[in-house]
Amino acid sequence: MQQNNTVTEFVLLGLTQDPLKEKLVFFFFFVFYGGIVVGNMLIIVTIKSSKTLGSPMYYFLFYLSFADTCFSTSIAPRVIVDALSAKKIISYDECMMQIFALHLFGSLEIFVLVFMAVDRYVAISKPLHYLTIMRQQVCNNLIFFAWIGSFIHGTIQIMLLLRLPFCGPNLIDHYCCDLQPMLKLACMDTYVMNLLFVSNSGALCSCSFLVLMISYIVILHSLKNHSAEGRKKALSTCTSHIIVVVLFLGPCIFMYTRPPTTLPIDKMVAVFYTIGTPFLNPLVYTLRNVEVKNAMRKLWHIKIMTE
Question: Where on the tree of life does the source sit, at the highest rank (predicted)?
Answer without folding.
Answer: Eukaryota
